[in-house]
Specification:
This protein has 666 residues and is of the alpha+beta class. The chain is 61% helix and 10% strand. A hairpin with a 3-residue loop joins strand 6 and strand 7. InterPro entries: V-ATPase_116kDa_su.
Amino acid sequence: MAIARMKKVYIMGHQSIRGELLEGLQEAELVHIANLREKIEPDVLDEAEIADQEELGSLHLKLSKVGFVLDQLGRFYIEKKGFLSSLIKEKVVVSLEDLKKVEEKLNFEQVYAECEALENEFARVLSNLRHLEEQRKSLVPWLGLDLKIEDIRDTRETGIITGKLPVSNFKKFASDIESELSYTCFNTVSEDGRNKCLFIIYHREEEGALASILGRHGFQEVTFPGLKDTPEIEYRKIQKETGALEKRRDEIREQIQGKASYREGLLVFHDYLQSLVLRKEVGKKFATTDQVFLIEGWVKEKNMAAASELVSEASDTIDISYSDPAPDEEPPVILENNRWIEPFEVITEVYGAPHPKELDPTPYTAPFFLVAFGLALGDVGYGLVLSLLSWLLLKKIPLGKMGQKFLRLLIYGGVAAVVAGVLTGGWFAIPSESLPPVLKNLRLFDPLSSDGLITFLLLSFGFGLLQLFLGVFLEMVDNFRRGKVLDGLIDQGSVLMFLPGAALMVIWMFWSGNNGGTPLWAKVGLVLIITASLLTVFFRNRQSKSLLGRVGGGLYSLYQMSSFLGDTVSYARLMALGIATTMIGWAFNILGGMIMAVPVVGIIIGSLLLVFLHAISLMINLIGAVVHPLRLQYVEFFTKFFEGGGEGFRPFSIFTKNVILRSKGG
């Protein structure tokens, strides 16, 4: 249960076998390739890299085409999934051999050409439909005009204008026409409440005066480009053409949906192309000449033999050598824990990789996160449902390693919630008085009673104090490992005395203050506090050369110890979350019970409602049971000893965003 031991590896070979070697390294996923190029900064590219750049252009073009087709399928095809599959993004399980042959089996260029043609036609159909819809809307106000549009044209002596006029301006417009023009007349074709559609005929002698009147009253001319028949006939033509285009649109949509069978192959092909891109781009990290390449990287100590065997299989002319990390080097970090602790690596990995020379926090945070999760969710029913659902997802849905770890973590969390629920009497938030005697007898305390509430709060504080104590102790151990014995004894030792001493004094003040006298354990607590305070004041700032500076810095450090009080109080959220789970479920039970009181129908509806409401309650409380214990680990626990800042071990490997590689025996 620690950080894996690393060896630096150097691989040197001829450029002619570089491609074969990289393919083997990528499939084996053993070597974390470092950027040796940064150290030597070559001025020119070798011939192999120039060829790689040309191939990269071709690969990126194919990737853009794959992305286009997948995006198209995503817009037109809604995959029907089962309940479990809909909860988590599913990956495609494929063998390495099938991954390599996917392009040949897929016949991608033909698929792309067909999809591109359909996309272009679909875009044209939509464009035409939009244009027809605009024409249709423009014709609606003119359906009452019983005149062919092609006949609406000027003659030598007369002109015709069609357009819209605001209703509010119509009376003044009509008055001006009547008073100022003698050879102009108009007809109202339609009115929609805001505008009147007018058909105006005028003598050319009055064209200028008419234009002035139209301008004054906000007249907007309307034309019908490309149309010939009467508005009503043209309207029917548009409806007919629209129907034909809509039919073709639906046919294209069905044709695209019919290509959904290619989706899995396209996802696999996408990852295959990305793997080839990685293979070409990794060459930018090598030191090279026209004839030779040199790879610098890292490999787990236990995988040295496998790496050597892989290289020898590629060619017996390749040289591989290993060395220990230099004292000032920081090798990449990968966590190695047993199968029971492994799921908790998610907590550490989300926070960040440890420094290569510090402790792996995973085994130390595991029991505390588990207990915190259990107390926060704290219900037998919810715990059982969570564990069962997570187990089913783990068994039924292909997932990557991170997803598998998280689901296993939820299974553990569900078990912890069951234990906490038994001890606190949480059974789907059923009131304690309604529980069978056998279940009541299993309960240690009732968190909803006044005494139980205090017990729950003190339990949370004690739990928090214990974890904080461990965090400081781990920092002391880390200092010992690095040879900083004095730092560990004074800086962390003083805190390790202060915390239990303060706890003993608090207990004495609340429970023994009225009994007369001072018990021995309270005196021990006082001695611990005094000793820790003296160590802190006089030796915590020991780097200072002056006594005043040492004492001043020590007093400030002593003041900072009060932050542990706030850190401990933070653990009260576990009590709040546990009670919230019970109260929310209790409210839902009351609501469901009221409906179930109605005979027959009420029982059915109430039962279904209870299932739905408790599912909502589980989701709400699950978020809190994950987020808040994580916060306690990151903000309260990790800050006491965990530095982080390490680089994660990322071996050169197959790109697996959409796929899971099936092992040869699987």
